[in-house]
Amino acid sequence: MSDHILRPSKLPERSDVISLEMYLLRQLINPFRLSWTLIKLGYEPLAPVRFYSPLAMLGWTTPIYVYPNIFQYVYHTFRTFGVWKIISTGVFASASIDFISEIFHRAFSRRSVVWETWLGSPESVTSYSDGSGLEDTSEPHLTIQQRHSAFRVEDQMEESEWRVFLHMLTEAMSLKAWEVLLTQPFLVVMVRQVASLIGGETQYSWFPVAVRSVYRETGFSGFFQGIIPRLFGELIGTVVYYTTCRLIRRWIFGIQRKRSTSLCMSEVLVYLGLRGYVYPFELTGCIMTLRGANLIAANEANLFSSWRPLRSYLIASGQANRGWFPICRSHVQSKHMPT
């Protein structure tokens, strides 16, 4: 009997672990994350400007109004709120989200090493759980070192049999669901801290104070406000992405052919398209984190009893892409349109 199943103790060490320096460097982008959150909440202090696309310059279309780009927005927040507030507001909650997400990224990478042993032998899924060995009679597959590191999981999802694919997909969904669940309280605190800048409220100034304010205003359930649309968006994106990649590889490019640049580009386009499709769920979840909060910025969220009417409102009013485009921000609110 061959030792077909790789035991957890024998898993190779990963070398792509984020370093402390890189982790700290991530926190330096807090001004952009803060500005992005403010944009999601509909805070637009800068007047829209007329934008001339190439087609508009040729007279084929009319110019449109757009908000200034994200760099001008960040500069404005520095001038309005001060450097220290922009750098420090929500930074601990943001760092906690990054830390938890990195833990799940490592767990996902570790599971992909185990998934590699399942390819070509569907029974190995059961064998891995009960500890029994199997003769490896499957066709040879690429080793984990031979795979394209950026598309390793995609390759595994595409090459596996349906039963193994569904098992992998279920594990991926489970990891994503747990990541959303554990990061949601920190997301709620971070968004409320950022939102307090709009009205100048002080009950969310520091992380411990913000945690107490969330509990006092909305109770324990307040730490999970907005989790349902966010969870829906993440799970829909995960399922549709890996399923679509599998169908593209098997029906168009062929499972026996080596991964090509065209296939990689196709899957990148699928990913970007899906992120745009599920973005309204993310936006709705961000706004709903303020529901029940005693903040001026929470007025929009408090108008709706649940996330579904809010999502419908955002789509109907053309605000569903609020914050999606950093440069040409065309989600101009009707109250800001020049008369």
Distance between the termini: 79 Å
Tally of distinct domains: 1
What fold name goes in the CATH topology slot?
Answer: Mitochondrial carrier fold
Helicity level: 55-70%
CATH class: Mainly Alpha
**Number of DSSP helices?**
14
Characterize the biggest β-sheet.
Answer: 2 strands, antiparallel
- The residue ranges in which pLDDT falls below 50 over 5 or more consecutive positions are 1-17, 127-140
Radius of gyration: 23 Å
The percentage of residues in β strands lies in under 5%
What is the 3D shape? globular
CATH architecture: Alpha/alpha barrel
Protein name: Mitochondrial carrier
Organism: Opisthorchis viverrini (Southeast Asian liver fluke)
InterPro entries: MCP_dom_sf (IPR023395), MCP_transmembrane (IPR018108)
Subcellular location: Mitochondrion outer membrane
3D structure, described in words:
It is a multi-pass membrane protein. Belongs to the mitochondrial carrier (TC 2.A.29) family. Its main location: mitochondrion. It is a single chain. The protein is 60% helix and 2% strand. By secondary structure, the protein is mainly alpha-helical. It has one domain (35-120, 144-336): Mitochondrial carrier fold (Alpha/alpha barrel). The chain has a two-stranded antiparallel sheet with strand order 1-2. The longest helix has 38 residues, at 162-199.
